[in-house]
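Sat 14:20. Reprocessing the chain from the morning session after the first attempt stalled halfway. Input below, unchanged.
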Amino acid sequence: MSTKRIILATGPLLLREALHRVLNKADHLEVVQEVPNHKDLPSAIERFDPEWVIIPLPISHPAQNWIDARRTDYPTVGFIFLSPDHNGIKLKRQTSYEDDFFDLSLKDFVQILEKDLQHT
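Finished this time. Tokens:
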């Protein structure tokens, strides 16, 4: 299984740091960039070509518009939106795949990220 690259985008610094530590402890995940400002997200995606971009909700309207418009530009990038209470996620890949997960443990969340892309 290859290592999956992850970008942690926007959201509170404490949340990004906590996710960074947990995800980097997983065998097949690597946080390659933290992006505190959504305006820097396009260049980070171009530079690192991540498998996942994790974004806490709610996100600003301009950032949501950008993500919706660009998902087809980055077909190999999955976007994961964390719910405000952090017990659910919405996974989006291109425009054809979208799924919601609720009441996940941290272990379950890591397993979703580690899955091979062809199985998501």
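The chain has a mean pLDDT of 82.
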